[in-house]
Every structure is written in structure tokens, then in C-alpha cells.
Amino acid sequence: MATMNDVAKAAGVSTSTVSYVLSGKRTISPETKSQVLAAIDKLGYSPHAGARALASNRSNVLGLVVPLREDVNVSVVMQFVAAVVTTARNFQQDVLLLTQDDLGGIERVTSQSVVDGLVMMDIVARDPRIPLLAKMNKPAVLIGVPDDAHGLSCIDFDFAAASRISVRHLVDLGHRRIALIGSPQASLERHATYADRVRSGFEEASRTAGVEFSSRACEANPTALAEALRELVTGPQGATGLVVHNEALMPLMRDTLAEMQLRIPEDVSVVAIAPTDVAVSSTVPWTAVSIPAHDIGRTAVEMVMERMHEQRAAEVRLVVPALVQRSTTVAAPGSSKSGPVH
Amino acid sequence: MATMNDVAKAAGVSTSTVSYVLSGKRTISPETKSQVLAAIDKLGYSPHAGARALASNRSNVLGLVVPLREDVNVSVVMQFVAAVVTTARNFQQDVLLLTQDDLGGIERVTSQSVVDGLVMMDIVARDPRIPLLAKMNKPAVLIGVPDDAHGLSCIDFDFAAASRISVRHLVDLGHRRIALIGSPQASLERHATYADRVRSGFEEASRTAGVEFSSRACEANPTALAEALRELVTGPQGATGLVVHNEALMPLMRDTLAEMQLRIPEDVSVVAIAPTDVAVSSTVPWTAVSIPAHDIGRTAVEMVMERMHEQRAAEVRLVVPALVQRSTTVAAPGSSKSGPVH
DNA sequence: CTGTTAGCGCATTCAC
DNA sequence: GTGAATGCGCTAACAG
């Protein structure tokens, strides 16, 4: 409840001096500085965020728009959120949470200067929030790359490339019939950018390699997975290599295949496109392309902060994927290949 | 960028009039009111949150402290978060996110008046944040009941009662050897209040009923589950009835039991203590005590808001549990009971 | 290196 | 039913 004025009086200096020891925006002699700090300590002073926001025109709060849908993987969302909050703190910023569906919220917090900038997750191809966000005069970064970013900056994992290197890995191992088990139907239908890009990357790389391929969505439950596997692996497709991009399915994958009398990797090789922890937390770790959720979240905040002060051109950053071979991929049955060829 | 003054000029009235049409704190004639609203619309005016916070001493922001641990179930956390954000909006409040480990954050946002109140999740028995929070002069509500609430209000699901009715249900069905599969070890060790209470409720009710019982923690992976089941069910304990309080295990439960040649419910009856969606989203729905995460989150916000203006006594609210029998519990093998006896 | 001072945009108390 | 004036607590430009 003590104000800066109280501190100034107690320390026998002027208000601005107190302000400046706090902000460090001009040099203060060691003596006065220590007197001010002593007074601050003595009075238990802490600055009033609202007053500061009014005078400085900066709230030190970032908005984060998170999806709270059923079909997004919550653990990945949490990783993003954790990364964003942690990074924001490094920039002395707090994080205000907005939900996907609260369209008015974006406009409100931005026009009322509740936030200094925004990070928006789970972008879809033609996202109605983007033109809205672009109008508001605050720095914003999209996690995901929409069809038209309206001049906003984007950061994303290069899902298309992730898909392509997964395909190439399988092809190099001699697999000639491969399949993609993708996100739930709902993600595809709303054209979540990651889902679209994984699929197009998969199809493109498969065609280039000249292998037989097919792909399908899959819900996150054992029944749906079993059906997908029946269609793609034991069925007419007869795939021997699988790319799986569906975090929630990973814990079910091994058991479900086992029930169908299929062994990994002897009968079917599997590449996962999944967050690092999902890929390696299994008893037998997956050959996988890791989605570095933490890095992406951190970078998103850094990009917002970069644009906060200096005017800066919009950019699209894609995080380059890397495949790590673990125990779930081997040379195709009947193939002469004993390992990847480069 | 238009200010209230601009609006006042454009409407040919004074600033205070504009303020009052916005707040509704005094009666305004229809004519002036519509002129003001027209001016607001024309100028695209929106109030500056910082200025409002300074003048009114209210930020219209609630703080929410969420756990970002490994051992908490993220989907449940998300449900709470969604409920809190949604409810907060009904009270014209935004939500600022703080993480568990950011101890200084609680103090910062509260002493700087960044937030008007706080909701804190994942309380442990002797939570170091509680004395800290109690000192700050802002309304706060704990989700969970600690040993000493330091005068703060608490809301929680009555986990002890949930556990007791689960036990009684099994006992009524004739089960004489029962077991509890609980939260991961880490939750128990840090004395998360829900984990402690589920266990004590389980043991108390088992003793009262005079049945054999045992309980143990279980990590959220198939191997750990298999080991727990070997110990509790097929091992010397020979439990025929199981209470499971570990959301992340539920998707694995059926498969793991199947691998061990155990059928539900013929060989073992299972009661789940889990969020509603987890309990019913399975192919065969569980007999369960539902954790109403949404209700709890909503109530937490309501309690904070109640304490925002009027001084109000601290209280502890416990949400009463209810068990819904579905297909995973039947009379014990060899029991004469054909159903629950009341 | 330090002090003085004029706002930042809004809420609210008085006066009418 | 309306207006004028003051202050909320802080920042930053200006003056020294």
C-alpha cells in the first residue's frame, strides 16, 4: 500500500529517483541507491501494476490463446503453455490465458491494452481469428502456419518435412507399402495446419519414392486404432511401414498390435511423429521425429518480444525436424536392405 | 487510442457522463446515453485497462496457479482451467496463469495488484505457498484442503467419501479382499491432498467393513500397472475388488488385465475414481465415482468473487461424491450376494 | 547525478 | 440528470 512517493520521502529523495533506481534507466549513485532500496524494504513497497501500465503504456502481460478442444492433445498443449509462461517470465512478462472460442477476448485484451502482445496456438488453415488479430495493433505470433497470415509472424514445426523424412526412412529400409495413421478426424476436418501438412508431406514423399501408400485419420481409442490397423496393415493395403502422428495413440499402439499378432518391428516398422517425452517414455522407445514443443513455445515468446519495441518484419520460422532411429524400425520383411541407404 | 475525453467531446458531454454510461453507476437520460454510445462506436473507443485499474483499484484479473508437474493428470488440469476461465469471464474477469514453482509469482501479482484474487490448484498437505498467500491481502481460494488453510477458503471434491463409498459398493457386492491402486508415488510423497484422502478413506472404510485390504501407488505405464495387478490381484492378496484412482491408468486397465487372463467383471470388479469423461469414454464404461472438475473450478471462482467486495468468512466446501454403477462391478465370485444391499 | 513536473486515462466526489 | 475538478501511482521529458 505504500506508494513511490512514500518511499521517496522516507529516503529523502524525489519520486523520479525512486522510479529510476527501480527501472535502471539512468545511473544512480551507490549511496542514494542503497538509501532508496532500504526505504523500499522498510516500507514493503511494491509498484502498482495499473499505474505503471498507464504511465508507460506497457502492461507487461502477454496473451496466450490456447485450444481447449477435445481433439487436441492436452499434454502437448501443456508443454507449450509451460514453455510460454517460463519464457515470458524471463522477459518480465506475465501470461494471460484466453480460450480458443472466446473470439471477443482477443479483441478485448488487445484494444484495452490488457496485454502487450499475443501468442496464438492451434492455428487452422483459414483461421477467422487471424484477420481480427492482424487489425489490432499489437505484436502477435501464430503457432502454426495458416493459408494467409495477414502479415503476422508464424512459428511452427516443419510437419511436412517431418513426414517426408519419416517416409524416406521407411523407404530406405526397403518398405514398399507404407501407411500414415494421422490425427483424429476432427483435426483434419477443421484443417489444423499440422494435420494438413503431415498428410501432404506424407503423400508427396511417397509419390516421389514411388511406393504404395495410404493414410487415414484415427480417433484416440483402442477400437479405432484396431480398425485402422486392420485396414492398413493386415488388410489389403498390407503396409509394412507405418508413420503415426497421433500422440494419444502411442500408449495403445504396442498392445493393440500385439492383440493382432503383429510384432514391432518384425512384422511392421513404426515411426512416430510425437513429442519427445511420448516417444521415449515407452518401454521400448520409438523411432521418432520429435516435436520440440518447448522450443516452439519459447521461440514464439521471443518473437513477440522482438516485435514489441522495434518495428520488425513479419517472418515464418519453421523448426527443422530430425529423425532418431530407435528400436521400432528395421528393414522390410523380405528386403535385401539391412539399414538405411544414404 | 481514443480516450474517454475524446468520446466526451464528440458526444458534447463531460467525461464523467461517459464514465457513468459505461459503468451504469448513475442514471443517464436516454438521449445523452445514445449520443455517448454513438460517439463510442464512431471513435472505436475502448477503455484502457491500466487507467481503470489505477482509478478503481481493481484489475479485473484473477490469478490461477496451475501445476505443471509430470505426475498430475494434465487432462484434469485442463478441465479445471477451462472451468475457471469460463466462469471468470462471466464475472468480467480475465485469468492470469501462474505456475506452481513460481513462488515469487504469487507474491508479485498480488502485491502489485496485477490480480484481484487467486485460485490455487494442487494443494499439498503442508503447502509452503499457503502462509505466503494468506499474508497477501487478496481473496484466495484453494482447490484442495491442506492441513492448515491459514484462514483461506478451500473447495475440493470429497475424496475420502469417494473412497469410502467405493469400498462400500464392493463390500456390498460381497467382496472380502479389496485393493486400491492409487496415484503415482510422487503424488503420495508430496502429500497431494487428494492422494492422501483417497487412501485414508479407503483404509478407514475397509477396516470398518472388516475386509482384507491393501493399497499401493502406481505409475502411469503398462509395466507398472501389470506389476501392481500381479501383486494385488493374482498374487497373495488375491483381491477380487479394485478401486482405481489414477486417471492415466484407465485406458490401460482393460488391456493389461486381459493380458493377465483376467476378465472384468467376472474375475475382478473395478470402481474408478476419475473425471466423468474418463469413466464413460471407455468402450465398456466403468462403475465410477466421478470427479466433477468443471463444477469445482467454477465454484472456486465464485468463491473468490464472493470475497472480493464483501468481507466474508473463510469456508471449506466439499463436493459430495456419487457412485454410478456401470458394467465393471458385479457380485464377488462365490458370493451369495447378487447386488448391493442397503 | 538528481529534482521538478506534466501528464497517462479513468473513477468519483462535489457542486449545480 | 450533468459537469468540473481532483487524484489514483507512476514514467519520462526537461531542467539543472
TrEMBL record, chains A, B:
Pfam families xref list: LacI, Peripla_BP_3
GO terms of molecular function: DNA-binding transcription factor activity; transcription cis-regulatory region binding
Limits of the HTH lacI-type domain: 2-56
Domain HTH cro/C1-type: 3-46
Keywords: DNA-binding, Transcription, Transcription regulation
InterPro entries: Cro/C1-type_HTH, HTH_LacI, LacI/GalR-like_sensor, Lambda_DNA-bd_dom_sf, Peripla_BP_I
UniProt name for this protein: LacI family transcriptional regulator
